Amino acid sequence: MTRDRKKLFHILTTWGGVILLITAILYFILELWPKWQPALISFWETSRESASLPMIALSFFSLILGYYFAPAAWRKILDALKVPKIDKGEVRRNWYITQMGQYVPGKLWMVVGRMTFLKSNGIGPVKAITAFILENLYMMVAMTIMALIGLPFLGLANVPLPVVIALWISAGLGVIMLFAPKIQRRIMHKLSHKLGTDIDSLPHISHKHQAIFVGYHLLSWSLRSMALYFWFRGFGVKPDQPFAMIAICLLAGPVSWFIALAMVFIPGGIGIREGVQGLLLSGFVRGGVEVATVIALGQRVMLMIVEGLYALQAIVYGSLRCRFTKSMNHIEQIFHLTGSVIRSKLAMYGLAKAPNPINVTYSVTRSCQSKCKTCFIWKHDSDDDLDIDTIERLFRSIGWTYFFNVSGGEPFLRDDLPEIIKLACRFMTPAVIHIPTNAISTDIIIRMTDEILDVIDTEAPGTVLTIKPSFDGIGELHDDIRGIPGNFNKLIETVKQLKQLQKEHGNLHVGVGTVISKFNAAHLGEIIEYSKSLGVDSYINEIAEEREEFFNLGSGITPDSDSYGKIMDAFKDSVVEKMKDMKLLPRMTTALRIVYYDLVVRILDENRQVIPCSAGLMNVHINSDGGIWPCAVLAYKGEMGKLDDNTDFQDIWNSKKAREIRKSIRRGSCACPLANQAYSNILLHPPSLLKTLWTAFRGK
Description:
This protein is an alpha/beta fold. It has 25 helices and 9 strands. Helix 9 crosses helix 10 and helix 14 packs parallel to helix 15.
């Protein structure tokens, strides 16, 4: 297409539809309305007593529901094509906003809006156009099904014979077109070429996915068709055969859409669609085609109001996000978290598939300068850490999560750690990012933490960053357990500089954590007491475990439950004393830990799952080599799969092997006191959750 022709085409698509629409409106007002007015007055005089406001309200409600489900097929198609993960809310909001583009300036601009949105989210033109083509193909399948339901009732609607014949032929051609591969390929090539690219072939889509796409289209369009039926009933139309009229309404929606689709220069197909609907429904209306068309036009006004409300909601939401980014992020996180907890509970009973994990732990590297007595990962360094491109693909596939825990090795040994956090913020939008460290390289830790905080301010304002240096003892005890002379002094200096950095960044939390093992269990009381002098935001401890991840199986590092329990009773008393002065969120977090400490004692004592475990469901651990684990304890022997060029996270997360591993965990085949996992388990265990809430409320 030459430059001049392109320019002319853009002018036509921008202004041609608007001019035609204005012309059609003027023609209706000046020419048609005076002729139709007597019939309308006559109809209203005989039907006004049959008019029903509840029916009109029901029509409005049906439209609201119909348009609520309208973007679902589009979103599911994007998922099936394995496009880079986009927030579901963003997809819906873009769909509603671009839907209004069919009115001003016209349908082509609606398509341009969606393609531009996908491009801005890293989706190439081929996949974007493929998604658009598939949406329209499966919409045609759904509408053909609806048309076939309504066609047998045309005789009862007194539709003229030529129209009946034309509709049957059109439906027949539609069926042939939709199920003939060669015709589909021609349509595909034609559409893709018009949109500026060429697609060789449509991807293979499973029958299950196809049924989902068609099902959502059927649901949305059926509700919209029922809204048309309720609207006519609301204006006093009382058909002798209500079921026949419902069937014709099911037919009128798709038929009018198909015809208006060809009229790309008529914004929204206004007038064309209502004329078709009036023709098909005229047999049920006293006054004929004229009255039926005007009633249909009235329903179009309501439809535009509904579409406008959804678009306005999307625009206002986007505006609020820009103005109150932190608050909106927190609200979104709460809704996401609530939904994931509910879905996880249903998934435990096999009533739903696994949701996005709310807790993602990613070991960015196995490299570590420490030579800990409790962990031998430093003996098994490797060069198979994921590159940044694979990490981006991983995070895109995971999508939303609440808690992102960076693990290692020593995370700060990766020079690109700030870039990794940037990708996590962009594609997973976590509420909390947690990074532990051995505190050996103080200067590097402080520099990178500062960079990470700048990244968070740009990509995910409101996200909390927690840096937690390890604190396994006082002075030489710490150095002895960590295997590095002078490590304790570096720990103190790192904490000091992190607290200085905290003065500039309110979302930075500084904590220390102790791994309680047989090497320091006897000193835990003095360690806990010393932690109070550090002035950190939080002090936590967790039990040392034998894990495949740490290559320490058979090391005997875990202390017995009696020793741990006695010390933790004293620790809990000191923690509870502090709770009285805490705000709600820190109080809730502290109460959660208190309940966890009680669970640890029972798990160590009874060697079983004291409460059901949700590993591999609410939590996931990603190894440095791309292995997907349900948790760090099962690790390699519980690996669900491994990332490669052709396999992304969702493929593994929803695989048959993943389901088998989850079933094994649910049967209680393993038991451990893993802290991260225990917190998620508490959320899904009503008695433990209630205990947490009660502890937080009472402060004791």
